[in-house]
Design goal:
Layout (H helix, E strand, L loop, with lengths): L16 E3 L5 H7 L7 H9 L4 E7 L5 E10 L2 E9 L8 H15 L4 E7 L3 H10 L2 E13 L16 H11 L33 E4 L2 E4 L7 H17 L4 E7 L3 H8 L4 E2 L5 E7 L1
Parallel strand pairs: 4-5, 8-9
Antiparallel strand pairs: 1-2, 2-3, 3-4, 5-11, 6-9, 6-10, 6-11, 7-8
Helix pairs in contact: 1-2, 5-6
């Protein structure tokens, strides 16, 4: 865990990029309208600097021109999205904010910075290139699956587990050792695999809760039957904690798995194939 509430993690050279807090909710809300951010969600994230960093750039009149949201995911700072006022688009706000977050991650002692990069977005590819994000793993699609569509969601009897217990259980379930041949995992852990290779480093945190969605950085399963068993085991813990859905990375070649997920009310949230881009310090 780390705390930058005093702003000490911000290097002097990024003074133009400000770490934002709960007092900025009103301005941020106008920038992120239409992206599932309520005032309550924003207040919670801006107050939780162990998990979320929001940085912004201001115009000369002091109003926000752009903001960038990031999420602590294991040993990485994951860049989740930049929002720019329409009249401020076309400048270097996205690049400068991303560089500021990368510097903050280094100062905080993290392993690196990472982001989903879409192969169909010239802007994302250009930004990833400037940030020197290297592809980790193969191209994927991301599917959001509601836990309510899974049989295991019905087994929620007894007192609900604490978040710490539940996430510990998620980590156990997502251990690559559950696959008899780890080399057959559909998606190796993207936050602990060397960029452009299949060689694993020390295991990272494979599950993280982002707002109301459980995110996976890998899929330690060899096929559909193992995916089904894994989801069936996770579902009771997630439902007990009020987590409505899970985001699953799927290799673009796994058409049968995509069809299986779609048959269980999963929706594809990546328009084009994506990969994790990583910059390791």
């Amino acid at each position: 865990m780390f705390d930058i509430s005093s702003g000490s993690a911000l290097p002097r050279e990024v003074e133009d990029e400000q770490l934002l807090g709960p007092g900025d909710v009103g301005e941020i809300a106008s920038l992120v309208a239409g992206h599932r951010f309520t005032d309550g969600v924003l207040e919670a994230e801006l107050a939780d600097r162990d998990r979320y960093w929001w940085v912004g750039r201001r115009r000369p009149d002091g109003t926000l021109a752009a903001v960038h949201r990031s999420l602590r995911w294991g040993d990485y700072l994951f860049l989740k999205g930049v929002f720019v006022q329409p009249e401020a688009r076309g400048g270097d706000h996205a690049l400068r904010l991303a560089f500021a977050l990368r510097r903050m991650a280094r100062r905080a002692g993290l392993r690196g910075a990472a982001a989903w990069v879409s192969a169909g977005s010239p802007a994302q590819l250009a930004l990833a290139g400037r940030l020197r994000l290297q592809p980790a793993g193969d191209p994927l699609h991301l599917f959001a699956l509601p836990f309510s569509a899974l049989p295991g969601a019905e087994r929620t009897g007894g007192d609900p587990p604490s978040r710490a217990v539940a996430f510990g259980r998620f980590e156990d379930l997502l251990d690559p050792d559950r696959v008899k041949n780890p080399g057959r995992a559909l998606v190796p852990d993207l936050l602990s695999v060397r960029p452009s290779s299949s060689h694993s480093l020390a295991a990272g945190r494979r599950a993280v809760l982002d707002r109301d969605r459980l995110l996976l950085s890998g899929l330690p399963c060899a096929g559909i039957s193992e995916v089904a068993a894994l989801l069936d085991e996770i579902a009771p813990f997630a439902v007990a904690l009020g987590i409505p859905e899970i985001e699953i990375p799927v290799p673009i070649s796994e058409i049968a798995l995509m069809l299986w997920l779609s048959g269980r009310k999963a929706r594809r949230v990546s328009g084009r194939p994506v990969h994790v881009g990583r910059y390791d310090f």
